[in-house]
Amino acid sequence: MDHLDDIDRRSLLGVDRRILSALHAHGHDPRVATAARALSRVGEHGTLWLAAGLAGAAVDGGRRSAWLRGTALTAGAHLVSMGVKRMVRRPRPAHVQPLVRTLGRHSFPSSHATSAAAATVAFGTLGAYAIAPLAAAVCVSRLVVGVHYPSDVAAGVALGALTARVGSRWMRKGGAHG
User: Fold this and answer.
1) What is the reported pTM?
2) CA atoms within 13 A of residue 130's CA, in its CB half-sphere
3) Are 123 and 68 in contact (CB under 8 A)?
4) Which are the contacts of 169, defined by CB distance < 8 A and separation ≥ 6?
5) How many other β-carbons are positioned within 10 Å of the β-carbon of residue 159?
6) pLDDT tens digits for 126-153?
7) Exposure of 178 by Cβ count < 10 A (0-12 exposed, 13-18 middle, 19+ buried)?
């Protein structure tokens, strides 16, 4: 059975590598590379999502507390992903030349994807549906720039969505006065 497990793991890694290579190849187009780099930069440490949450709190005074709680959930999801990353310690892809520098050496899960998915779920409950396509673009950018495997991004999305979903009741309970 161990032999079959090894084959399954190798074939999954092979699929991961092939998908990454295909998406990373689009980074040879300077316009795509520029956009992917910009999306990766604004997604660093969840900055884009934290700014969006604070902006929502500033302009939507009636739901300020809910926006701030959603922002806290997004930040919390990012922190959880960093903790998981330190435990798993999967190295970043070595078979492609990255188009951006990274702050850390570990790849799984993608913290960009985690915070993007958390923001999508948290702010989506407040009607901010435009977050989803931007979040998807940030997730794909991590593949185009060559710093994550698709499974890193998928795991980050799942972790972020789950974290925000678990906290969504807490987020909404503030209402107009909380």
Assistant:
1) 0.86
2) 3
3) no
4) none
5) 23
6) 989 999 999 999 999 999 998 899 999 9
7) middle
